[in-house]
Structure formats: structure tokens, C-alpha cells
Amino acid sequence: MKKLILAAAVTAAFSAGFAYAEETKVEAKPDHEVSFNAALTSDYRYRGISQTRLQPAVQGGADYTHNPSGLYAGAWLSNIKWTKDAGGSGDVEVDLYAGKRGEIAKDVSYDVGVLTYVYPSNGLATDANTTEVYGQIGYGPAYAKYSYAVTNLFGFADSKNSGYLDLGANIEVAAGLTLNLHAGRQQVKNTDVASYTDWKIGVTKDFGIVTGALAVIGTNASEVAYASPANGKFLGKTAVVATISKTF
Questions:
Q1: Which helix (H) or strand (E) element contains residue 83?
Q2: Which residues of the chain have pLDDT under 70?
Q3: Pairing of strands 49-50, 211-219
Q4: 159 to each of 128, 147, 154, 221, how far by Cα in Å?
Q5: Any idea what DSSP says for residue 208?
Q6: DSSP state of 106
Q7: How many other C-beta atoms are found inside a 10 Å radius of the C-beta of residue 109?
């Protein structure tokens, strides 16, 4: 359940004040680009719900992009606890995804693809492994994304065709500092008690060596549906989540 714990600010600011204007050159991206990422977070929240029983997580992944076409593929993983809480086993999540992104017009972007969440040896009565197709439209710093489950959703029985609407914006407020805003709605097919709304208000700061993020995250999820059997704590409670990440 990757997406979107972080939003990194990547725009560099150049100040004027020289006697003569200097010409800046934009470095062209290679046709084939590979990047890696690593992160440490105080609580792995996905769509507002803790995947780690309100405890820290170590995460990492790799991405390939074919820049001329906008095609991309990647893999990402994190430690988790929720499959055990649901009566199964396993402590790892692996995300595999591929898609295509590009620009429709000036300042208008798109991103479409497929994402499979794999929970090795999860052992749940309804398999936790989930596949979603998604589509996103962006305008400047704002975006709207919809994810549609073509399988059962994260172990919920008869939940195929569930959907998640994600609205947000990542607004640069200063050089290297980004305001992150998000609101989402998870609809779980045939299980109304599991449907809920989540939200996030946070900031991301690029320190050069690493990127730091701090966010307040909350939900109106049902405590009956999203309480940890291990300790009874509500996994959708409002909390501050801190993350340190690096892309290289």
C-alpha cells in the first residue's frame, strides 16, 4: 500500500542580483532512467489506516522510467503488522506497478496504470493480495486520482469493484518546502462498516542529503472495523507521522 506517504519538493530556486543575467541550462533526462528510494517512517499509514499497528516502518523501492514514452514500472516494500492482526501471517508488503504518465496540455498531466499489492504467505481466509487499476489527472500542483479494485480488497470478502478517490495538492511555499494536502474516500464494496474518509495536512522539506516530512493524518473510520486485536488501539486515529526519505 504504497502511495503516498511522501511528496518531495524538487524545484530549485535561483536568485537574481547579478549585473548581467545568467543563462541556465536544463539537463536533458536520459531515455532510460533508474532510481532507488529508502525511507524510515514513525507509522506506515496507507489511506489513513496504520499498517504497522501505530509503530515505525522501514521502506524502500526501485523505479524504471522510459522518459521518451512516459512508461514506467517499479517495486516497493515495507514491513507491516496488519495481516497478523487480521488473523493471518506475514510481515512484509511488496508493491508491483506499471503505467504511463505524460502531459495532456500545458500544466495538465495524466498518469494511468496498474498496481498489485502482494502479501507473501498472508494466510487470510480471503487472500489479502489486491490489484487495482488507477487513473490520475493533475493540474499544476493539484491532482485527482481514482483507484479501482479488480480483485477483492485487502482481505475483505466479496469486495471486488471497491474504489478509492484521492484528491490533493502539493504546493511549494518556499524553496525546498512543500505543503501537502490530501482528502480521500475509501469505498469497500458490500462492507459499509469498512468504508471511510481520510485526510492529511503536512509539509515536506528537501534538505539535500535527505527529505523530511511531517504530517497530521486522520480518518472517520469505524473503530470496530479498524482496531488492532493485538492491543485494541484504533488504527485510524488522528496522529502526527514523521518520515525521513532519500531518493538516489
A1: helix 82-85
A2: 1-26
A3: unpaired
A4: 11, 14, 9, 17
A5: S
A6: T
A7: 16
Cβ proximity of 67 and 28 under 8 Å: no
pLDDT at 24 (0 to 100): 46
C-alpha cell of residue 237: 486515529
Q: In the prediction, which pLDDT does 1 show? A: 58
Residues 6+ apart with CB under 8 A from 59: 5, 38, 39, 40, 41, 44, 76, 77, 78, 79
Q: Would you call 15 helix, strand, or coil by DSSP?
A: coil
pLDDT of amino acid 177: 98
> What are the boundaries of each domain within the chain?
32-247
Which tens digits make up the pLDDT trace of 203-226? Answer: 999 999 999 999 999 999 999 999
Third-level CATH fold of 32-247: Porin (2.40.160)
Q: Are 218 and 237 in contact (CB under 8 A)?
A: yes
Question: What does pTM read for this prediction?
Answer: 0.89
